[in-house]
Design goal:
17 helices, 4 strands, 4-stranded mixed sheet
């Protein structure tokens, strides 16, 4: 009896020790709860109708002033104008009704992105403070030095009536669950901006987009569709037509085209007359995945020395043709 008891205790201790060890491995740190990245809510503060704001909100308000082109203006006057703006009046109630309940989970996911970013892409500077607001502008994520602004009114759901004028492919991505991935993409692009110009070959632009998609998979645990920047439905279309898209690019002489118009058709978030939405980004992602299998590191994929090199395509070893 005593022997059986000791054996059972040892068994439970060994299992406990194994689980503790597992949770301390950095790569598997997701088995524990990550520290949430709390968003300071400028939108709620504006709705409260206060004529001033707490001192610790000052960096966020100043960053918003810069994005609005009002740097140097009187801060209190700017704030009062924003609090009474049409954007706050129209969007704030919809934010509260449609996505307020998701905010705690989003904050946890942003915290997870921050932790993975520090581990996998240490060159990326994660903002010290994150603010949420509603905005009349088209940018959903705005980064300025140590401050990030998230426009919550860009994530009210694909069926939101305020998005009716947008292409269906864009509306499908207007969900609050996509905020952490969008945060990751904004920071990756800020730390690793495209090293070419508008006349760079399409292949280089596709490889860069593919490298960004790989980063999203790693730091935001994005789905294939979200990494490619499309809805699940459109991702299936891309998967089913990968070979046809590649063949068209090669045979049509577009793969190394330096035309900005061609690049726009392949990379934009809605279909062109010839290609599905984000076809260029999807193929770029598949090229990047192939390059990783050939030994190219995910960080190296984001280097202009790689994607702008004359033999970048050869280094990926990519070819979907059967």
């Amino acid at each position: 009896m005593h022997i059986e008891y000791i054996s059972a205790v040892r068994t439970h201790y060994n299992i406990y020790a194994f689980l503790i060890a597992l949770c301390t491995i950095p790569v598997l740190a997701d088995c524990g709860r990550r520290d949430a990245m709390a968003m300071k809510r400028l939108d709620l503060l504006a709705v409260d109708g206060t004529d001033s704001f707490p001192a610790d909100y000052h960096p966020g308000v100043e960053a918003w002033m810069r994005f609005c082109g009002r740097q140097g203006a009187d801060v209190d006057s700017f704030w009062n104008g924003y609090a009474r703006s049409k954007a706050v009046e129209v969007f704030s109630p919809d934010v509260k009704e449609r996505i307020e309940a998701e905010i705690p989970e989003i904050e946890e996911e942003i915290g997870a992105v921050k932790a993975r970013m520090a581990q996998l892409y240490p060159e990326v500077r994660f903002p010290a403070e994150v603010y949420a607001l509603v905005s009349p502008y088209s940018q959903s994520i705005m980064v300025a030095d140590s401050v990030m602004l998230i426009a919550l009114n860009h994530y009210l759901g694909g069926e939101y009536e305020g998005y009716e004028g947008m292409p269906a492919e864009q509306r499908a991505l207007k969900n609050a669950a996509n905020i952490p991935a969008d945060v990751a993409e904004a920071l990756i692009r800020a730390a690793y901006p495209f090293g070419g110009d508008e006349w760079s070959p399409l292949c280089a632009k596709m490889l860069y987009e593919g490298a960004v998609a790989v980063a999203l998979k790693r730091v935001a645990h994005a789905s294939g569709a979200l990494a490619a920047g499309v809805s699940d439905e459109n991702f299936e279309i891309l998967e089913d037509n990968e070979e046809n898209i590649w063949r068209s690019l090669v045979e049509g002489g577009e793969l190394f085209s330096t035309s900005p118009r061609v690049a726009d058709e392949l990379l934009k978030p809605y279909p062109s007359r010839k290609y599905p939405a984000r076809a260029g980004r999807y193929i770029g992602w598949r090229m990047a995945e192939s390059a990783i299998k050939k030994g190219v590191s995910p960080a190296a994929l984001l280097s202009a020395d790689f994607y702008l090199s004359d033999n970048a395509l050869a280094k990926t070893g990519y070819s979907p043709l059967k």
